[in-house]
């Protein structure tokens, strides 16, 4: 019985680590074992950036996301405009950084994304 109680405690502790962060305009960051960016429309959730999102950064209506893909090209970078529903995907970090700076992200903010 003691082992069952301990197993239940670990199960509850594991479930409490799951969470969702509102990114605005129906978008959210979902941490449910496989981190992803989703959009909910009419009560239905769809993954916008699927797979493991390593890190993200939100500023105003813009969300930057970094993802390590298991197959080449390796890292993928995203710029999501939640106001216009525009999603840009990059495989070249320099192109991603240039786009992010056009939307007002600073070098200091972009450094936080890589940590």
Total domain count: 1
Total number of beta strands: 8
The helix/strand series, from N terminus to C terminus, equals HEEEEEEEEHH
Radius of gyration: 17 Å
Low-pLDDT stretches are 4-15
User: How far is the first residue's CA from the last residue's CA?
Assistant: 43 Å
Structural class: alpha+beta
The general outline is globular
In which order are the strands of the major sheet placed? 1-2-3-4
Average pLDDT, all residues: 84
Number of helices: 3
Report on the biggest sheet: 4 strands, antiparallel
Helix content: 25-40%
**Beta-strand residue percentage:** 35-45%
What does this structure look like?
By secondary structure, the protein is α+β, with helices and mostly antiparallel strands. The protein has one domain. 27% of the residues lie in helices and 43% in strands. The chain has 3 helices and 8 strands. It has helices spanning 2-15, 93-102, 107-113, and strands at 19-24, 27-31, 36-41, 44-49, 53-59, 62-68, 75-81, 86-90. The strands form 2 sheets. Strands 1-2-3-4 form a 4-stranded antiparallel sheet, with no helix packed on it. The protein is globular and about 35 Å long. The chain starts with a helix and ends with a helix. The model is unreliable at 4-15 (pLDDT under 50).
Any chance you could write out the topology, listing elements then pairs?
Blueprint: H1 2-15, E1 19-24, E2 27-31, E3 36-41, E4 44-49, E5 53-59, E6 62-68, E7 75-81, E8 86-90, H2 93-102, H3 107-113
Antiparallel strand pairs: 1-2, 2-3, 3-4, 5-6, 6-7, 7-8
Put the structure in a nutshell.
The chain contains three helices and eight strands, in the order αββββββββαα. By secondary structure, the protein is of the alpha+beta class.
């Amino acid at each position: 019985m003691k082992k069952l109680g301990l197993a239940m405690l670990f199960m509850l502790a594991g479930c409490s680590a799951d969470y969702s962060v509102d990114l605005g305009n129906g978008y959210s960051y979902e941490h449910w074992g496989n981190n992803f960016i989703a959009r909910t429309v009419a009560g239905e959730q769809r993954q916008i950036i699927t797979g493991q999102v390593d890190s993200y950064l939100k500023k105003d209506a813009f969300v930057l996301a970094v993802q390590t893909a298991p197959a080449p090209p390796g890292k993928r970078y995203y710029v999501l405009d939640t106001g216009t529903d525009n999603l840009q995907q990059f495989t070249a970090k320099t192109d991603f950084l240039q786009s992010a700076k056009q939307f007002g992200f600073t070098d200091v903010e972009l450094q936080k994304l890589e940590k």
